[in-house]
Design brief:
The complex is a heterodimer.
Chain A: H1 2-28, H2 34-39, H3 45-54, H4 61-73, H5 87-93, H6 95-122, H7 127-141, H8 144-158, H9 174-208, H10 211-218, H11 223-245, H12 247-260, H13 266-275, H14 279-307
Helix pairs in contact in A: 1-14, 5-14, 6-7, 6-9, 7-9, 8-9, 8-12, 9-11, 9-12, 10-11, 11-14, 12-13, 13-14
Chain B: H1 2-13, H2 16-26, H3 28-45, H4 47-50, H5 82-117, H6 119-133, H7 137-145, H8 152-179, H9 182-189, H10 194-230, H11 242-249, H12 258-285
Helix pairs in contact in B: 3-5, 3-12, 5-6, 5-8, 5-10, 5-12, 6-8, 7-8, 8-10, 10-11, 10-12, 11-12
The chains are: A mainly alpha, B mainly alpha.
């Protein structure tokens, strides 16, 4: 098992290496002069020259890359051009709302989707199943902002039950923190719920047809015990994999949801950076988000050792 | 003997109209999806003839008019007709959805075949694809949009790039499994050259999953375009795309919800109909094919 753990950890290095190369090359390989892109439409020749020197774009490509990787290795993501502050600090300032929204969404989706999927598979073909499947196709198709504004109009504007938008830090006011997260969580959670419910249903359907389920039922085990201990436990690996892979979908949704609800998180930071062509910030966000995504999926792969003792690599 | 011949010949003998009807009966929901999609395509393509107003004509006297009367879907803050803008917006979504689906399948097919067939290229290609897939799609598209002045073509490229690795993986896995089959080994043993082997034996096997994948990519591209435009980093604001109409309308959610409701519903219907069609195609072409994301 330890061999597998070590090999799996080492396998993340080339992935992150490729991400770093891609992020580095993106600006350099873009059509046009990268310094001019960063400087914007109204820059003078001196502005462009200054930015070129500041970003080190006047040096040979390989030297730039080595310097940049060296900085990254020391945890230095560079300086924001627009705000003239370290990128890492900017990202850390914006982490709390994004992290809070992502976590509540994951919990919401998992709590809702797994019973839905299990129920749909258990009563496959029934109206429950058809309802779950119809809802999941619908949730995949309705754009996040339509759900978001629908909820805002319903719960915040028409009936003054929840705040329209914004974010309050957990440390400042836990109650306001929770109230501000309800609508964004539901908005963002529906797509993720649909994804997980579909996978849960599909995997459970396969497993419920296995011989050992028939055996469990034949020896008179109560149905909940069969469903949860025998079937769901065996279905856990594909479900947990989807939770990890679906994180990419979730992060995409976070950007849009933060915009709908004016939440000052990483997504808003990215959009602001793109509109200002603040390249070091865009690069930093991509690196950090990809790093988190790779790390979470690494942890999930490692968790298989615990979930499924049959897995030996 | 005759009985067998009869049953085998029966589907051939069935008139095409009856066969089509049977297809409709067996797959009623995908058929409904296809019908809805056709209607939406007709509305968008025919927008210049169907739309009651000019989509960019401003009429400040009639600003933020509620739905009804002269303006079936109401007007926006500049007095532009939402119905006409929504119909024209469908053209942008349709163009981007189709272009992204086509571009990412063609690119993915090309790269995937190379990765699946040449061991040496495989290692390098798949490392790059793994790296690309580690960056969430919308984030990558947003970053790509910042590289140059926005236009519809840039949006197409920005949405295509994150979709390519998924197609590559799919094609590669099909090629890898097919190349181990005895008939491929037999074909290469009798001296079939690579291009012919590809054309006659390997590519046909990738078609069914690829068509299904292309539909899902089309649906996702329509959504992502609307997200990018909604965030202000997509289709240039002067072009009425659904995302742009909603991005402008969001400022007036409280007083003029129809600004986001109608384009939003059209957007949802288009994505829904493409997804439903994709599910139907998947069931028709290969019932075993698992849903991929």
């Amino acid at each position: 098992m330890w061999g597998y753990v070590i090999r799996r950890i080492l396998a993340t290095i080339p992935v992150m290496g490729v991400v770093a190369v891609l992020v580095f090359l993106m600006l350099r390989l873009s059509p046009g002069d990268p310094a001019a892109i960063v400087a914007g439409d109204f820059a003078t020749a001196e502005d462009i020259a200054q930015i070129r020197a500041r970003l080190g774009l006047d040096r040979p490509m390989l030297e730039q890359f080595v310097l940049w990787i060296g900085q990254l290795a020391r945890g230095d993501l560079g300086y924001s051009i627009f705000l003239n502050r370290p990128v890492l600090g900017l990202i850390l300032e914006r982490v709390e709302p994004t992290l809070a929204l992502s976590l509540t969404t994951m919990v919401f989706a998992i709590v809702l989707a797994i019973p839905m999927g299990v129920l749909a598979a258990w009563r496959a073909g029934s109206w429950v199943d058809q309802l779950v499947m119809a809802l999941s196709v619908l949730a995949f198709s309705v754009p996040v902002f339509l759900i978001g504004y629908g909820l805002v109009i319903g719960f915040a504007l028409t009936f003054d039950l929840l705040p329209v938008q914004g974010f309050v830090s957990l440390a400042d006011d836990p109650v306001a923190f929770a109230r501000h997260l309800v609508l964004p969580t539901v908005t963002l959670g529906l797509v993720y719920t649909a994804l997980l419910a579909r996978i849960t249903r599909g995997t459970m359907l396969e497993i419920l047809n296995e011989d050992f389920i028939r055996t469990a039922r034949a020896k008179g085990l109560a149905e909940p015990r069969v469903l949860i201990l025998h079937a769901l436990k065996n279905a856990s690996v594909p479900i947990v994999t989807t939770i990890g892979v679906g994180l990419a979908l979730l992060i995409g949704g976070v950007v849009v949801t933060e915009s709908v609800f004016a939440i000052p998180g990483i997504g808003r930071l990215t959009i602001e950076a793109v509109l200002q062509r603040d390249y070091p910030v865009i690069q930093g966000v991509i690196l950090v988000v990809a790093g988190v995504y790779v790390l979470v999926n690494l942890l999930i792969d490692l968790s298989y050792c615990l979930l499924d003792p049959r897995i030996r690599y | 003997m005759t009985a067998i011949a009869d049953t085998v010949a029966a589907p051939e003998a069935m008139p095409p109209r009856r066969r089509r009807l049977r297809l409709l009966r067996r797959y009623p929901i995908p058929a409904a999806g296809a019908a809805l999609l056709l209607a939406l395509i007709a509305c968008s393509v025919g927008a210049p003839w169907v739309a009651p107003h000019d989509p960019i004509e401003m009429n400040v006297v009639d600003r933020l008019m509620p739905p009804g009367g002269d303006y079936l879907f109401g007007t926006d803050a500049y007095g532009r007709d939402i119905l006409s803008r929504t119909l024209y917006g469908g053209r942008v979504s349709l163009l981007i959805g189709l272009a992204v689906a086509l571009a990412s399948t063609v690119l993915g097919l090309f790269i995937g075949v190379i990765a699946g067939y040449f061991r040496l290229a495989d290692a390098i290609i798949m490392r790059v694809m793994d790296g690309l897939m580690a960056i969430p799609g919308i984030l990558l598209a947003i970053a790509l949009m910042s590289l140059t002045r926005a236009s519809i073509w840039v949006v197409i490229v920005a949405i295509t790039v994150p979709e390519v690795p998924r197609v590559v993986r799919l094609v590669r896995s099909v090629v890898l499994s097919v190349r181990e089959q005895t008939y491929i080994q037999a074909a290469s043993a009798i001296g079939t050259r690579f291009p012919r082997l590809m054309r006659k034996h390997i590519l046909p096997n990738t078609m069914a999953p690829l068509i299904v994948q292309a539909t899902y990519i089309c649906a996702s591209a329509v959504l992502v375009e609307s997200y990018l435009s909604f965030l202000g980093v997509g289709t240039p604001p002067e072009i009425p795309s659904w995302g742009n109409i909603i991005a402008e309308g969001r400022l007036y959610v409280q007083i003029a919800f129809w600004n986001i409701l109608f384009p939003g519903i059209f957007l949802a219907l288009m994505v829904l109909s493409i997804n439903v069609l994709g599910d139907g195609l998947r069931d028709m072409l290969d019932p075993r094919l698992a849903r991929r994301l």
